[in-house]
Amino acid sequence: MQGRALRVRWEFKLRAAETIPFKAYQAAADFLREKLPFLPKIALVLGSGLGDFTKKAECATVLPYTEIPGFPHSSAPSHAGVLVCGRIQGVPALIFSGRFHLYEGYTPRQAAFYVRALKLLGVKTLILTNAAGGVNAGFSTGELMVITDHIKFADISPARGKHEPEFGERFFDMSEVYSQELRETALECAKELGIPLRQGVYFYMPGPEYETPAEIRAIRLLGGDAVGMSTVPEAVAAAQCGIRLLGISVITNMAAGILPERLSGNEVIGAAAEATGRFTALLQAIICCIQQ
Ligand code: HPA
């Protein structure tokens, strides 16, 4: 009997986590509408070790996630957990420094909570950035990659659970999650700046452990060019909401088994920090181009 009670309680908890009430998204959007000095059409999410980009925001208003209703807390290393609203070379932008990962214990819906709040705020374009392991043997540590598509075989989707029509259809198209137009803009900006920019498929792995060398060989066979533990829950939510998406990965390490080295979280953060100059220049250029 005790076992059954425990199971029922546990199942209830799981269902509750899958079902975030619509009014929670509304509360977050209303709060942001009230607190932000202006409502940008472009939002940007900074991945592991990439938080320095917020220094480029002029006239910035900074809101800790802990103050925003419904926002989960960001516990991942080097994820500041603040929302910065400012101008990037004059262009209004919302910058999320830190995101929510499934390996922190969040559900896909919690990880993508902010994307749905952005939809209610009228944000039209989202740029997701991340640190990723290079699977394509032609890549090198420190390079940047524009995400052409993703592969998610993990049993996760922020769209699972109660359907909220305000965030799109129940069954939705995934044939161009990462906007071709934005990818072309990114490639043009990189060319102009002389920054090498790879293109490739991002393979989602839930982590927090890095992959085994056998997993990486399998990922390569399946068509993955880079591997990482973020971005995809939010990308799926953006696709459902009809938000135009661009994804940029910083290759912070070669994935497990490619080089005769062990992987470490510190190495990932360090490599992301080293790529900051190129990453910042490219993102600034992209944001200015998108605005035109
Ligand atoms: N695997 C998964 N996630 C990552 C990696 C990796 O090698 N590097 C940075 N994030």
What this model shows, in words?
The protein is of the alpha/beta class. The chain has one domain: Rossmann fold. The chain is 36% helix and 23% strand. The protein is built from nine helices and nine strands. Strands 5-8-7-6-9 form a five-stranded mixed β-barrel. α2 packs across α4, α4 runs parallel beside α7 and α5 packs across α9. The longest helix has 17 residues. The radius of gyration is 19 Å and the shape is globular. The relative contact order is 0.19. Hypoxanthine binds next to β5, β8 and β9.
What are the distinct ligands in this entry? hypoxanthine
- Name the beta content range: 15-25%
Reading the helices and strands in chain order gives HHEEEEHHEEHEHEHEHH
Helix and strand content put the structural class at alpha/beta
Q: Strand order of the main beta sheet, please?
A: 5-8-7-6-9
Global shape:
globular
CATH fold-type name: Rossmann fold
Mean pLDDT: 90
Short description:
The chain is an alpha/beta fold and 292 residues long.
Features:
five-stranded mixed beta barrel; 292 residues; 36% helix; binds hypoxanthine; globular; alpha/beta; 9 helices; single chain; Rossmann fold
Secondary-structure topology with pairs:
Blueprint (H helix, E strand, L loop, with lengths): L1 H17 L3 H14 L6 E5 L11 E7 L17 E7 L2 E7 L10 H4 L1 H9 L3 E10 L9 E9 L27 H14 L3 E8 L8 H10 L3 E3 L3 H10 L2 E11 L10 H10 L1 H16 L1
Parallel strand pairs: 1-4, 1-5, 5-9, 6-7, 7-8
Antiparallel strand pairs: 2-3, 3-4, 5-8, 6-9
Helix pairs in contact: 2-4, 4-7, 5-9
The structure holds hypoxanthine.
Hypoxanthine binds next to strand 5, strand 8 and strand 9.
